[in-house]
């Protein structure tokens, strides 16, 4: 795992497309998948987030070190993106990326992380201790999507001392 750098933009966008196309057929309609997979090509929001946020990439074991997964905080208190190639799922990559991103945010003084989770990411986030705040439906590229606003407290506030009863 290493920090995402500007030269990673095109490979990371390829991971994004692969993840949506390879992992979502049982969760989303063909129109939803097409809209989601093509999103980075239709506007610059994903590319700009990748350039300004704090991102990490997970590399394959081959000598070329192909990017297999990535995660992004943008801003520091928001998990903005988390994607893994279909061929690299179930290898602990997303879990490791999340652990590192959570540690980074906590190290920056962030008490709580937030995100909008897809049907794909929600189960992993729940396993990692994230909590659902609300379910919502949004229109994205003329398609209705269901997602979950989720949070994860990164620090536990100490309880104030109690006064002795007398």
Which properties best describe this structure?
single chain, alpha+beta, Aminopeptidase, four-stranded antiparallel sheet, three-stranded antiparallel sheet, 7 strands, 29% strand, globular, disordered C terminus
Walk me through the structure.
The protein is an alpha+beta fold. It has a domain at about 1-110: Gcn5-related N-acetyltransferase (GNAT) (Aminopeptidase). Helix content is about 35%, strand content about 30%. The chain contains five helices and seven strands. The chain has helices at about 10-25, 30-40, 45-50, 95-105, 120-125; strands at about 1-5, 55-60, 65-75, 80-85, 110-115, 130-140, 145-155. The strands form two sheets. A four-stranded antiparallel sheet has the order 1-2-3-4, sandwiched between helices. Helix 1 (about 10-25) packs antiparallel against helix 2. The longest helix is centred in the N-terminal third of the chain and has 15 residues, at about 10-25. The N and C termini lie far apart (about 55 Å). The relative contact order is 0.15. The model is unreliable at about 155-165 (pLDDT under 50).
